[in-house]
Design brief:
The protein is an alpha+beta fold and about 475 residues long. Strands 1, 2, 3, 4, 5, 6, 11, 12, 13, 14 and 15 form an eleven-stranded mixed beta sheet that branches. The protein contains 18 helices and 15 strands. It has two domains: about 5-200 and about 355-400, no CATH class; about 220-240 and about 250-345 and about 445-485, no CATH class.
Length: about 475
């Protein structure tokens, strides 16, 4: 960081934090906000309360009280952060990304801690998990929200333990997809608009979550677990047409599937047994450049019907099957509710944008100390997650103005280097197609759109012309030869 940048960052930070003045009960808390955020942005090796307080020359107890006891409105602070993003960074091609991250913790006193799968450790570990909503638009991305996940058996069912950790009685167990849905609705209520949402199979495998997004009119590309079931040809649904004769016994439910109907099939088995997929050729796409060269994936797309809350077919949706061109055993399944005219390139672009939130987590942990917290109480943990979002937004805006990004060790950008940015910019012409989707075809009028004639297999080969900036499709050269070049 050069001398000019150092001179700029302090007044820029002061101006930025004034936007949150109304969220605090007194000036002292506003000073503590500046101390905490400045500590997260500093070059301290450890960014827990004590090192940050020592560096600022204040008693550590004051920052501890700021997180745990001081009166300030977290909801108002979150709203102001999200409205700032909506006001300054709105984009017709924005992508919302839902994901979770974890923090290894010792002992059993920290709120929400338990032995569970820990992505940070790559194994089952004693840790805290939090669910987050990220926002990406052009070369800009930031965290919008984050909350700790409250386990059901070890915490929700033990209210005495919850009270000891400062967890209010009104805070109850919610599944992760319910937390993500609440964060999404909160952001939309504060003016943030997402052209797309994308998330991994932990959320894509939850049909109630997908139905809620359908009802909200939100386009999404969801990764599916291999066990997710549905139909490539919808089964016949019977509806009552004649009055029931009371002498016939117990009435049958309507609408219902015909007794002899096409059975649903797990998506992993479609590649083996579906005659429709056998007629669709694999098409290779250069998705993006990684640190080891271009990432090339082959894709197939077919119409797909999923089960609604009554077990009846709902759709059609897009089922996108992608396999790694260099490792055909690596296969991913994606579901999208986008209109039928959406090109495969657009779906692939959105599906593979989840690296952005991984970069947000990496920057937040490596640059801001997201995982350095040493607090135990629930309120302090929630406030720490929110303040990290505040710090991340400032860092993202400041670095965007400086035309550079913070580099996190071992995490390449879309272009294969240590910088971040430009990933969506050079593909904006691809996303323009997404901006042309008919929003009326989602939600209330979805039945009319999805009742249209399914796409032919030739639609899988749709390409976008008129610009050299697009996901490349290989027609003449074999994939292995292209990668070698």
């Amino acid at each position: 960081m050069d001398a000019q940048t150092i001179l700029e960052i302090k007044p820029a930070l002061t101006t930025y934090l004034h936007e949150f003045d109304g969220c605090f009960a007194n000036v002292r808390s506003q000073w503590h906000l500046a101390t905490y955020v400045a500590g997260q942005l500093s070059d301290l090796q450890r960014k827990s309360i004590e090192p940050m307080a020592d560096a600022a020359g204040v008693p550590p107890r004051t920052l501890q009280e700021f997180l745990s006891l001081a009166r300030w409105d977290e909801a108002a602070a979150r709203e102001r952060l999200q409205r700032r993003v909506a006001r300054r960074h709105s984009d017709p091609h924005s992508i919302g990304i839902i994901d979770e991250t974890s923090y290894v913790k010792k002992g059993n006193q920290t709120a929400c801690v338990q032995r569970q799968h820990c992505g940070a450790a790559g194994k089952t570990e004693n840790c805290v998990v939090s669910v987050h909503l990220g926002y990406a638009a052009g070369d800009f991305h930031t965290l919008l929200d984050g909350e700790p996940y409250l386990p059901e058996e070890t915490w929700h069912n033990h209210r005495t333990r919850c009270r000891a950790a400062g967890i209010p009685d009104e805070v109850v167990y919610r599944s992760k997809w319910q937390m993500a849905l609440q964060q999404y609705r909160r952001a939309v209520g504060h003016g943030v608009r997402f052209a797309w949402l994308t998330f991994d199979e932990g959320y894509g495998g939850k049909p109630p979550f997908l139905r809620e997004l359908d009802a909200c009119g939100q386009n999404y590309v969801a990764e599916l677990p291999a066990s997710f079931v549905g139909w490539t040809v919808p089964p016949q649904v019977l509806h009552r047409q004649l009055p029931r004769d009371k002498r016939l016994g117990r009435p049958r439910r309507f609408p219902r599937l015909k007794v002899k109907h096409t059975p649903s099939c797990a998506v992993r088995d479609l590649l083996k047994y579906s005659p429709i997929l056998r007629r669709v050729a694999w098409q290779a796409y250069r998705v993006r450049d990684g640190e080891k060269g271009p990432l090339v994936w082959e894709a197939q797309r077919v119409p797909f019907w999923i089960k609604d809350e009554r077990g009846l077919p709902a759709g059609p949706y897009h089922l996108l099957i992608a396999r790694n061109a260099l490792d055909p055993t690596e296969i991913k399944f994606f579901l999208s509710n986008a209109p039928a005219s959406t090109p495969v390139e657009v779906l692939l672009l959105v599906a593979f944008e989840r690296w952005r939130i991984e970069r947000m987590f990496e920057d937040s942990k490596g640059e801001l100390g997201l995982d350095h917290f040493e607090v135990r109480r629930y309120c302090s943990l929630c406030r720490h997650l929110l303040l990290t979002c505040v710090s991340h937004l400032f860092l993202a805006e400041f670095c965007q103005r400086q035309k550079k990004r913070p580099a996190a060790d071992g995490v390449p950008s879309a272009n294969g280097d240590a910088s971040v940015g430009g990933h969506l910019v050079w593909r904006r012409t691809v996303l323009t197609e997404a901006g042309r989707t008919d929003r009326g075809a989602i939600g209330v009028n979805a039945a009319a759109e999805r009742g249209s004639t399914p796409q032919s297999p030739q639609a899988n080969g749709a390409t976008i012309t008129g610009s050299r900036f697009q996901i490349e499709r290989f027609d003449q050269m074999p994939v292995a030869q292209e990668v070698a070049l």
